[in-house]
Automatic annotation (TrEMBL), chains A, B:
InterPro entries: HTH_LacI, LacI/GalR-like_sensor, Lambda_DNA-bd_dom_sf, Peripla_BP_I. One of its GO terms (molecular function) is DNA-binding transcription factor activity. Residues 2-56 form the HTH lacI-type domain. This is LacI family transcriptional regulator, sucrose operon repressor. It comes from the Bacteria. Keywords: DNA-binding, Repressor, Transcription, Transcription regulation. It comes from Anaerobium acetethylicum.
Length: 324, 324
């Protein structure tokens, strides 16, 4: 591969001059500039970002750690983070932790060795004091913020309230909440709090069911939902804590002969692609995923530049009424 | 951040000795080794992968370029590529092209500047002679192979045949094929060829409809499907060239009062998460995505080591019968 030296040799200029053209530094005559460009083209010279990164002691790369790439929520989130990074001329290194703590630590170390400009962590609940080995900003999305530089969340509490209110206003009197389980406490737990609050306010019967880790990892909640509906034949409304769970609730209802939305209504959470692809399409709480990704990038840039940033930012949610 | 020099100073050893411990080169006594580890821990020393990459003139990073991260097929593919890369201690740099040629070129150049070990290209149909600027292997997945180092495809032709045969065996006599359009020729075009071949063999009426680029980019085929079903009220079977299209066909049928599968049967393609989440769940052609990702990584490693690799590999598909 052609080097800076080869370009210099080809043009008869010094390496310093060629480097000044490449980096747009100092005054360079038009003729010289053209000569360098011509030689670069002829030799197929490619600037070496690795060398540049070494001298700057950082890269224009951001580490992104998620638990499950194929999960529709994270696929959407990754897509939005990539777009926000690309706009700022940053690249993303993507890691899939499968929610295993040891993988998260390994990836954080890889991020550090590779001198990323920062990390966006959307996974797990690693012993966060481990972050202290990182000398770069760590922004969490929908994860507990202790020890991270800053956290970005959606208004999970209000989301739970909106879901309960919608079901009650639609005539439901016996509600079930099915929550994802993540082992430890998470911002998403607030969805249940908001849901319970509104049910109590209106004197509506409600029950909260927690799925287990195995179901979350496999992404299969069907057996759990069927059991829940057998145990609670009086249920006429379900608030599922993800669209993935809501989609499977629709399937279980179809198999059990329960008409949705006539006999039982379902509200999901996230508003990702799957919500608009089921039959009936899912009424859900919209998480502002694009805005959350944008904000995470901005916070990362600000913190990286040494400026102070808010440690916790909560963005608003809204209900999207479809057919379920 | 602590450097190799700091570790050497702390231990009283030379930089060369410390480096030998880190790289496991030559004979080092146990006591010396322990001394270096202790100092590394004390100083919170992190090896600098950037420096290592510069001296090796390559990185253990692979560029992955896809058209749409959030599309369930690509989300699954990325997940499998990440897993295969991680097993080999490689990282992935992820780029979303939106199928824009200029973005693909920009990303290929970024891959080159960042000295990736190779590129896995799952996007578009860039003027492939542009690849020649890359001095690393380029493996395509489900894209036309010209000028790439190697291409990995699934057996699209057989997939089309399997879909048509299944519909005909299930009693359908008026078939529609809805294909994704991608502007130019693609391996997926073979799905239609296989479908038509079997329809002709059995003397079954068939018609092939191509969606347009706008529908592909927006991921919304509903208007198109509705029109197709109005134009062809006799249709009793649809072969959709993706599960995404099949899911929307189910929605359109529900709205039009067409019972699936009783009055009209639907077969998708890909077998990604969405196929098992719709109501009814989608009967589909399984693409061996995990095996394709595994193979792409192996080919990349082989080609990177200077060994000769097959230019085109086609992996088998199978039908997964669900409810549609």
């Amino acid at each position: 591969m052609a080097t800076l030296k080869d370009v210099a040799k080809e043009t008869g200029l010094t390496v310093t001059t060629v480097s000044r053209v490449l980096n747009n530094r100092g005054y360079i005559g038009e003729e010289t500039r053209q000569k360098v460009y011509d030689a670069m083209k002829k030799l197929n010279y490619q600037p070496n970002e690795v060398a540049r990164s070494l001298s700057k002691q950082t890269t224009n790369t951001i580490g992104v750690i998620v638990p499950h790439i194929r999960h529709p929520y994270f696929a959407e989130l990754i897509s939005c983070i990539e777009a926000a990074a690309n706009e700022r001329k940053y690249k993303i290194l993507l890691f899939n932790s499968g929610d295993r703590d040891e993988k998260e630590l390994e990836f954080l170390e890889m991020c550090s060795s590779n001198r990323v400009a920062g990390v966006i962590l959307c996974s797990g609940t690693v012993e966060v004091n481990q972050f202290e080995v990182l000398s770069v900003p760590v922004i969490t999305i929908e994860r507990n913020p202790e020890h991270a530089t800053a956290s970005v969340e959606c208004d999970n509490l209000e989301g739970g309230r909106l879901a309960a209110r919608h079901l009650i206003e639609s005539g439901c009197r016996n509600l079930i909440h099915i929550s994802g389980v993540y082992g430890t406490s998470m911002p998403a737990d607030q969805r249940e709090t908001g849901f319970v609050e509104v049910c109590e306010e209106h004197g509506i019967r409600h029950c909260e069911l927690k799925t287990n880790e195995m179901q979350y990892k496999e992404g299969d909640y069907r057996g759990f939902i069927e059991e829940a509906l057998r145990d609670h034949p009086e249920a006429d409304g379900i608030f599922a804590s993800s669209d993935l769970i809501a989609a499977q609730a629709i399937q279980v209802c179809a198999r059990m002969g329960i008409a949705v939305p006539e006999r039982l209504k379902i509200v999901g959470f996230d508003d990702v692609m799957i919500a608009s692809l089921t039959t009936p399409a899912i009424t859900t709480i919209h998480q502002p995923i694009r805005e959350m990704a944008e904000l995470a990038l901005s916070l990362l840039m600000e913190a990286g530049a040494g400026r102070s940033v808010p440690v916790r930012t909560v963005l608003p949610v809204r209900i999207v009424k479809r057919e379920s």
